[in-house]
Amino acid sequence: xxxxxxxxxxxxxxxxxxxxxxxxxxxxxxxxxxxxxxxxxxxxxxxxxxxxxxxxxxxxxxxxxxxxxxxxxxxxxxxxxxxxxxxxxxxxxxxxxxxxxxxxxxxxxxxxxxxxxxxxxxxxxxxxxxxxxxxxxxxxxxxxxxxxxxxxxxxxxxxxxxxxxxxxxxxxxxxxxxxxxxxxxxxxxxxxxxxxxxxxxxxxxxxxxxxxxxxxxxxxxxxxxxxxxxxxxxxxxxxxxxxxxxxxxxxxxxxxxxxxxxxxxx
Length: 266
Description:
Blueprint: E1 2-6, E2 17-22, E3 28-34, H1 41-44, H2 53-56, H3 65-80, H4 86-111, H5 113-118, H6 129-136, H7 138-159, E4 168-169, E5 172-173, H8 179-207, H9 211-218, E6 228-232, E7 244-248
Helix pairs in contact: 4-7, 6-7, 7-8
């Protein structure tokens, strides 16, 4: 039996390794994904006041602290049995949306994107953010940086800090935004929509336009029938902040009421 070890795994936040075991015919018999680090948040949060959770748990990750901050804040709301006012809820959702756009920009262009944009035959040394910029151009690289800058600016306005936000408390937030900030956020948001449309055009032209790559990812080697789970609102539309859990099977049937989904699985 042959053993293949990939350690460390790059382009992710944290540490990880993959162990692959092949039989005598060279086929995969077992694969293990391992997280060798210990962060210990589950233990040092025990016994602490619930109000501290939004500040402690967001240290779990420097890439997605807003997600941990928001989850802990909503848990605190539930403990106190309080309903967040409409304005507070909208601000929280806006903060999370800014994080979502920023985080997906990072993933597409810096983490997952290099493999997609550079293609399956690109040298390993070129499958990184520098290779992406070299292929798509410095102007696009500048837009990526600008999108992340805008996203962090919105998070700072609402969350108090660009990284590790600190304003969510049981029942709402400790601060609001000014009219000037609202206007600035709207301006950055409209620019972000244009950037998202621009990124979709890049994906369609560079990734989906590469027949060899499309044949590879749609071939048997990457086929995996799986279920999908996500949050949706009362209209069955995606909602990252306050939706209900929906599960659909590989064919798109809602597992709760066996109705056909009307939107792509999340």
